[in-house]
């Protein structure tokens, strides 16, 4: 087998692959990514493989989900290394389109979102982000016509936005979630972790530790408001600039104040230097 997963760059080539495999009675799994792949992405490919005979990974740094001043131009682009990693799990195809393939001249359609996209979490700090994500994911799902598509729980609000969008637009692909993979010290794997200085990397696991402590204490019956305010102090005390630390209903992202308000997810975003980290955890037991 080649040491790099095969790559195509046009929608037509990807569709020809899907047509041929479907014709042979096989199911198709899709794993949309922006590349700079790490073990978390690879686990999503493995999850897709549990539901489909053929797996396509897409690699596209989507300009429309970055606001001016965000890290679009410096976002790591590592296609050759990504294809090697994908070959280790026998991904069947990589779809790596150019910007002009996804957004040809005259492109003028954007998905408009409410619901989980307006939960006052990521959207408060990145107001145009989810429209860009939903638009590109709607395109990828329509282009590939896959049976299943897998997204990481690490971007929890994104996962709910994509699920809602696919349901509302009658996109017939099952949207599946893959769990967050973590470094041994608890830091959630992210392509953006490469931006962390050595000093910030040493402090970064505090975010996960604070969320894990908060989840345990809420599960143990302590008051949500108090626990979240203590978690904020711990995170700020380690040198983070906090965007949000919130306990929300795990399915609707509505604010919760009591354990009985439903399955609860704690979500956080905080900055260490120029690097913005996000993480989330389920409160166990309900
Ligand atoms: O999570 C990501 O990597 C991106 O937001 C996605 C879903 C591939 C859309 O560009």
Protein architecture, described:
With 286 residues, the protein is of the alpha/beta class. The chain folds into 2 domains: 172 residues, 3-Layer(aba) Sandwich (Rossmann fold), CATH 3.40.50.620; 88 residues, Pantoate--beta-alanine Ligase, Chain: A,domain 2. It is built from 10 helices and 9 strands. The protein has a 6-stranded parallel β-sheet with strand order 1-4-3-2-5-6, sandwiched between helices. Helix 7 links the parallel strand 5 and strand 6. Helix 6 crosses helix 7 and helix 9 runs antiparallel to helix 10. The longest helix is centred in the middle third of the chain and has 16 residues. The structure holds pantoate. The site of pantoate has 10 residues, from strand 2 and helix 6.
């Amino acid at each position: 087998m080649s040491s790099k997963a095969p790559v195509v760059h046009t929608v037509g080539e990807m569709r020809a692959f899907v047509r041929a495999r479907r014709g042979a009675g096989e199911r198709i799994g899709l794993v949309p990514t922006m590349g700079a792949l790490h073990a978390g992405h690879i686990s999503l490919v493995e999850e897709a493989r549990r539901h489909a005979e053929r797996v396509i990974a897409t690699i596209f740094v989507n300009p429309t989900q970055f606001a001016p001043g965000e890290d679009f131009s410096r976002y790591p682009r590592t296609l050759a290394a990504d294809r090697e990693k994908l070959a280790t799990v026998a991904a069947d195809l990589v779809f790596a389109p150019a910007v002009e393939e996804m957004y040809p001249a005259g492109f003028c359609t954007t998905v408009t979102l409410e619901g989980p996209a307006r939960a006052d979490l990521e959207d408060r700090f990145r107001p145009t982000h989810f429209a860009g994500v939903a638009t590109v994911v709607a395109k990828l799902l329509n282009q590939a016509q896959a049976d299943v598509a897998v997204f990481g729980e690490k971007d929890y609000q994104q996962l709910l936005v994509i699920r809602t969008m696919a349901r509302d637009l009658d996109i017939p692909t099952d949207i599946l979630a893959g769990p967050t993979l973590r470094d041994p010290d608890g830091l959630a794997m992210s392509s953006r972790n490469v931006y962390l200085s050595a000093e910030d990397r040493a402090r970064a696991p505090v975010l996960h530790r604070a969320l894990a402590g908060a989840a345990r204490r809420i599960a143990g019956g302590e008051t949500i408001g108090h626990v979240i305010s203590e978690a904020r102090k711990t995170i700020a005390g380690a040198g983070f600039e906090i965007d949000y630390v919130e306990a929300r209903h795990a399915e609707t992202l509505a604010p919760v104040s009591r354990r009985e308000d439903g399955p609860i997810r704690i979500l956080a975003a905080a900055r260490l230097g120029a690097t913005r980290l996000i993480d989330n955890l389920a409160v166990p037991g309900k």
